[in-house]
Design goal:
The structure holds two protein chains of two kinds. By secondary structure, chain A is mainly alpha-helical. Chain A has helices at about 5-30, 50-85, 95-130, 135-170, 175-195, 205-215, 260-275, 280-305, 315-350, 355-370, 375-385, 390-400; strands at about 200, 225, 240, 250. Helices cover about 70% and strands about 5% of the residues of chain A. In chain A, strands 1-2-4-3 form a four-stranded mixed sheet. In chain A, a hairpin with a 6-residue loop joins β3 (about 240) and β4. By secondary structure, chain B is mostly helical. Chain B has one domain (about 25-195). Chain B has helices at about 20, 25, 30-55, 60-80, 110-115, 115-150, 155-175, 200-204, and strands at about 10, 100. The chains are: A mainly alpha, B mainly alpha. The interface between A and B is medium-sized, with 22 and 21 residues.
């Protein structure tokens, strides 16, 4: 008799968990949908890139892979030590529970910044060696302080939310915190175009093409702006930013410095517009939402070992768990990202109907940015947020074949 | 001569955590954001307080408490950011920080002096602005010293504390927390309470 309520609770809990899992799986299946035809076979293609350039790109990226792995080992080690001993820094605080938690989180971030600094400097050295940047070492040192300041503010805000919720709901705070973080992420995505210093695209023909492409993809015209990055890199890039009324396509100035032809830039424009027309930014927020809840739950579980997230002493451990979860989810994030990039490539091909322009662009990325066109499988799965150059060229050829 | 009602309390052992010193400008950021938001509320509430003092000679009690907390908080943050104090301050302006200011009781004030407060405060505000620049230089120099030795040089700390006090007195005067004008000279008269600290006294 006495076990009946417990059994009922277990059954109810189990049913709820199964239902949640089913909803979660259905959401993943829905978000994974792509306009790239199912079962599209990619043909074997020649890269068409000088072997010496390919070898140079392999050396360039190979070094960064090792550097990244080393930096992550150091990062986790530093945070593990901080999780072990960091609570003692609470004595340096005259603030209350939440303020002390903020201090511990900021110290943790500061230590991470210090531990990563040598790797950043080595990265600058390597980029300079391969003529990918003119940025100086001191410049790198000071430029990052602004970034770090923004991170400090963001982590303080996030912790204020979490610790306030945890103070009121010690075991269930993560249910309330996850939606708050998703809302913050959405607000950041919405506001990003206003936070980046850009100028309007001054090349009238390209701007006109962007309007034509937007119409072809069935969306309202999206402003195209240019971000001057020439002070810190020579790598060409572009990105889609904003939601709804703030939707923008941003081209890096390095894409317009004469190294890339208009045909190639048009492919980039169509690709970035495709991120908007395929609603990839909204989908990105949805993906984040799917992982935010279980992620917050895991942090809550770990923090219970230090008295729960309401206690400042739990903050260093929570920081470690957060970083480990982020690292563990990187391959998943990259898998999702590659799926979106592949779809954007496909929509761009449908829009420009210019596979030659696309192939030229992808080859050019290897020669200019030293993208390894054929990375090792493990590196591709772990690090690459885009399909490989060979895959992108093959997709263009597959599109040509399908027409 | 009576001591100024906004007085300095120092319970600081000059020890500084090197890690906190190294990241001090960044650690102050959430506080600066909070001070910015709080300052907007203060700016919005100040005219209400001014009208109340001119009409009734006293601040409404909630406003007086609100302004006193603001004066204390701004002082604690200034002390922290300027390396005059070591620990990370709280966000409410509660008393008890190692470098803190006392705030006065709510007292009746002269209507005329209160009515003209915005004008009368200008010289003090200008001097406060200049002293803030001096405090910035102190913080810059002390950053290197504290990072190297793990301690704040007492001379720099005392000079910084005096500036914190002047800034607090000026803010309190401008917000009609007190009608006592800020002490322009660092050579203050002896403070009456033994717990109060005159950095110039100990520096001698």
């Amino acid at each position: 008799m006495g076990n009946r309520p417990l059994t009922r609770r277990l059954l109810l809990g189990g049913a709820l968990a199964v239902a949640l899992l089913a909803v979660w799986a259905a959401a993943i299946a829905s978000l994974w949908q792509s306009s790239v035809p199912d079962g599209l076979a990619l043909p074997a293609v020649e890269l068409g890139i000088d072997p010496a350039t390919v070898a140079r790109a392999e050396r360039f990226e190979g070094f960064f892979r090792i550097l990244f792995l080393a930096s992550q080992v150091v990062l986790v080690t530093v945070l593990a030590l901080y999780a072990w001993q960091g609570a003692r820094f609470a004595r340096e605080s005259a603030a209350g529970r939440i303020g002390t938690g903020m201090l511990l989180a900021m110290i943790g971030l500061g230590l991470v910044w210090l531990a990563q600094l040598p790797f950043r400097l080595v990265a600058v050295w390597w980029n300079r060696r391969y003529d990918q940047t003119d940025s100086g070492y001191l410049e790198t040192l000071f430029a990052n302080w602004l970034e770090l300041g923004a991170e400090f503010l963001a982590v303080c805000f996030a912790l204020a939310v979490v610790m306030a919720l945890a103070g009121r709901f010690p075991r269930r705070w993560w249910i309330g915190a996850a939606p708050v973080f998703v809302a913050i992420g959405a607000a950041f995505t919405f506001a990003l175009p206003a936070l980046v210093q850009t100028e309007p695209l001054r090349r009238a023909p390209l701007a006109a093409d962007a309007r034509t492409y937007a119409a072809a993809q069935g969306i309202e015209p999206v402003p195209v702006r240019v971000e001057d990055v020439s002070d810190f890199t020579k790598t060409p890039n572009a990105y889609a930013a904003g939601l709804g009324p703030t939707r923008t396509v941003v081209l890096w100035s390095t894409l317009l410095d004469g190294r890339f032809g208009d045909g190639e830039v048009r492919v980039v424009l169509a690709h970035e517009l495709a991120h908007h027309s395929s609603r990839h930014l909204l989908e990105g927020i949805a993906w984040y939402a799917l992982f935010a809840l279980p992620g917050a739950w895991l942090i809550a579980l770990a923090a219970r070992r230090r008295g729960g997230m309401a206690e400042p002493a739990a903050v260093p451990l929570a920081l470690l768990v957060l970083v480990v979860l982020e690292l563990a989810s990187t391959p998943v994030y990259n898998l999702v990202s590659r799926n979106m990039e592949r779809e954007a490539d496909w929509v761009a091909l449908e829009t420009t109907r210019d596979p030659d322009g696309a192939v030229a662009l992808f080859r050019h990325f290897t020669t200019e940015s030293l993208n390894d066109p054929d990375p090792p499988r493990w590196a591709y799965l772990l690090f690459d947020s885009h399909p490989t150059t060979r895959q992108r060229i093959a997709l263009a050829e597959a599109w040509r074949g399908a027409r | 001569m009576d001591g100024h009602p906004v007085r300095l309390r120092i319970d600081d052992d000059l020890r500084r955590s090197r890690l906190l010193v190294f990241f001090r400008p960044l650690l102050a950021l959430p506080h600066l954001a909070w001070l910015w938001a709080w300052s907007w509320l203060v700016v919005a509430a100040a005219p209400v307080g001014w009208v109340a003092v001119v009409a009734t000679r006293t601040q409404p009690h909630p406003l007086h408490r609100f302004f006193c907390a603001y004066v204390r908080y701004a002082s604690q943050l200034t002390a922290f950011a300027g390396l005059v104090a070591n620990p990370f301050p709280g966000f409410t302006g509660a008393p008890g920080y190692p470098v803190d200011v006392t705030t006065p009781e709510r007292l009746a004030q002269s209507r005329w002096k209160s009515a003209l407060r915005a004008l009368l405060a200008i010289p003090a505000l200008l001097l406060a602005y200049a002293l803030f620049g001096v405090l910035t230089v102190i913080a810059f120099l002390a950053w290197f010293a504290a990072l190297a030795t793990g301690r704040m040089p007492s001379g720099l700390r005392d000079l910084g504390a005096t500036i914190v006090r002047y800034l607090a007195q000026t803010t309190a005067y401008a917000l009609l927390v007190t009608d006592r004008y800020p002490h322009a000279s660092p050579a203050l008269p002896r403070e009456p309470e033994p717990s109060l600290f005159d950095p110039w006294e100990t520096a001698r």
